[in-house]
């Protein structure tokens, strides 16, 4: 058994000197008959009664959910690895399991204290940091979580395990953690708000575990070439006109759903979200506007490409209007031409959504009400999906390998002038 256990260790690149043993492999090795044989081999002078009692102690409960059974199997495996199988009788006598370890000295004279095992301190990892938190991309072995989105039994060993997003708060205050946890739980059933998988405290840090958006964010989506962007399963086999219609239909659907009660519409419902101490200091909670996201930007709209259905969802993660913005929208509207979804949506964005006065600005309900009939029209009327020209064409600069956004202007000099007038510059693509 010791040889089998030693061959089951899994090492990861980030911590090559700290291997771990998947609980699935541990259970497979420590089957009841194998445990009994190991006890008999290591303790040949034991009575039949002692062998049976210790075997039952180790194996009882291991077939169920993770818990006491797993804890006793881990303890037995440690004893096998250090050649101390006979000590299992002592652990049986006092009812001690792996979850009770390690023992630490008592702070009082003569006192005895059993403390649960805690995790080691976290090590510095590269993450994407924001004002309130930092997000890490992490992998968890399939045996050690119940958040299976895709069924790939050997994916971890192949280096392709499902990723998760670990969001660690900068604040170490329990109240801030509790408020965010309550609000995230309220959003659990909403298809266009990111689902919370787990909440945890590690040392003095509070964290949340979310599914990883394999498609990146709306911001990273803009940097993708047309050929690499997937919005429906069979888009590569479509002709250009069908591709355009399919893409516009997908955009209409995502924008509409994000504005409904399945997305931001739920967040903007003042009665749905917990009233945090932070917001109480900034907002009149009796105001009908109470209930805000507060950080809507392309980087916080996530693109999930692997779903069980055929829809590739966008989800929300958690002043003065510049004249250049108005000019840019007008230019895009001229390119798309009249009487199509993109033209109508651009007009609505300019006139109703970018209104500085909040009393006249479109609410989520207004946005949803505007988009619903136009999304339905996209489904029924193919021509309504097709603009006169593509508003964006992503091309590659041959000399520097950069991603450049072309606004549909035909003359190269016009493109350079337009880029200069708007103060825009091409940005080299970086993976996050």
UniProtKB/TrEMBL annotation:
GO terms for molecular function: ATP binding; protein serine/threonine kinase activity. Signal peptide: none annotated. Residues 121-432 form the Protein kinase domain. InterPro entries: Kinase-like_dom_sf, Prot_kinase_dom. It comes from the Eukaryota. Residues 418-432 have a biased composition (Basic and acidic residues). Residues 396-432 are annotated as: Disordered. Residues 400-413 have a biased composition (Polar residues). PANTHER family: INHIBITOR OF NUCLEAR FACTOR KAPPA-B KINASE EPSILON SUBUNIT HOMOLOG 1-RELATED, SERINE/THREONINE-PROTEIN KINASE SBK1. This is Protein kinase domain-containing protein. It comes from Hirsutella rhossiliensis. The lineage of its organism: Eukaryota, Fungi, Dikarya, Ascomycota, Pezizomycotina.
